[in-house]
Design goal:
Blueprint (H helix, E strand, L loop, with lengths): L1 H6 L2 H7 L1 H11 L5 H25 L1 H7 L26 H22 L2 H18 L7 H20 L5 H26 L1 H6 L5 H25 L12 H25 L2 H12 L1 H15 L1
Helix pairs in contact: 2-4, 3-8, 3-14, 4-6, 4-7, 6-7, 7-8, 8-9, 9-11, 9-13, 11-12, 12-13, 12-14
Length: 297
């Protein structure tokens, strides 16, 4: 099973589930029924497992070309000797598609039972993931597509607890997740893979703009993430005052702004992986904060 979980980057996927969890609690201001919680967790796990697997399935040819000289070290949240199992030929292409198909089918069923509208979001996420992979050698603007993909999970979570959310709520959550993905995940990941990406003439922000401008883009995106995060309490029925804002700001500084600025300032490749790791725990930290406020309300 390790090969399959490596295909789906399960450690990273589990961390990602914290983002829709946070958004659901923020918007509802309370815990939903336990049946909804269990069903949502299973559906989210199935969806993230499928979409991450789809990334490697669509990008298998490029991955094999990229890592002909060996797989790079990766990051602690998904570092493994089995990273990219398809490219390493430790998992068959057929088995990979069966794995994806099974989990995607379960995600579709779970989405329908939670709210049929989520089916559209899930299918859109899968299609956008395919587009993202196909643009690898076409344009660095693919990073914008990654922001759209990552926003689908949290937006879907909103529809679980609120069948008719306001446009303001959706735009705010979308912007928060979008800039976090670009500044804390996508661009640092491409920075970490710069050597391999240059082998295949990939189009990424670090390659196109260079380290200094890529670092500036990261700092701006992370700054916007933290700023937008300060407005999230406005869409919650909870009375989230200065204690929440202070806790959220501290988490943003420690996990996003500080490592992001260090990467921009020093331009050391290893710090891209450090930023990626820290940023991966940012949604989990936000979930922990809102969890406490829901309990003590």
């Amino acid at each position: 099973m390790k090969r399959f979980f490596a295909l789906s980057r399960t450690t990273h996927g589990v961390l990602d589930i914290a983002t829709p969890g946070f958004c659901a609690l923020l918007c509802l201001g309370n815990f939903p029924p336990w049946q909804v919680i269990l069903q949502s967790l299973f559906t989210a796990f199935a969806a993230y497992t499928a979409i991450y697997a789809l990334n490697d399935l669509v990008g298998i040819a490029v991955d094999r070309e990229k890592f002909v000289g060996g797989i790079n070290a990766g990051y602690s949240v998904e570092a493994s000797d089995l990273r990219y199992p398809l490219a390493q030929n430790v998992l068959s292409y057929r088995d990979g598609w069966l794995w994806f198909g099974g989990w995607f089918a379960l995600a579709l069923i779970g989405s329908y039972l939670l709210n049929p509208a989520i089916l559209i979001i899930l299918v859109a996420a899968a299609l956008l993931e395919v587009v993202y992979c196909l643009l690898f050698k076409v344009t660095y603007l693919r990073t914008l597509v990654s922001g759209l993909v990552k926003s689908c999970g949290p937006i879907a979570a909103v529809f679980v607890v609120n069948p008719n959310p306001s446009p303001y709520l959706l735009i705010l959550i979308f912007g928060w997740v979008f800039f976090w993905e670009i500044g804390g995940q996508n661009v640092p990941a491409d920075w970490n893979d710069t050597v391999e990406d240059k082998r295949v003439n990939a189009k990424t922000i670090p390659i196109h703009f260079g380290a200094k401008r890529a670092g500036l883009i990261i700092v701006i995106a992370l700054g916007l993430t933290v700023i937008i995060g300060m407005f999230l309490p406005t869409v919650s029925p909870l009375h989230l005052g200065w204690p929440y804002l202070l806790a959220s700001a501290v988490v943003g500084f420690v996990l996003l702004l500080k490592p992001g600025y260090q990467l921009y300032k020093l331009q050391e490749g290893c710090r891209a992986g450090t930023l990626f790791d820290n940023a991966s725990y940012y949604p989990l930290a936000q979930l922990a904060i809102i969890f406490i406020f829901v309990i003590i309300k």
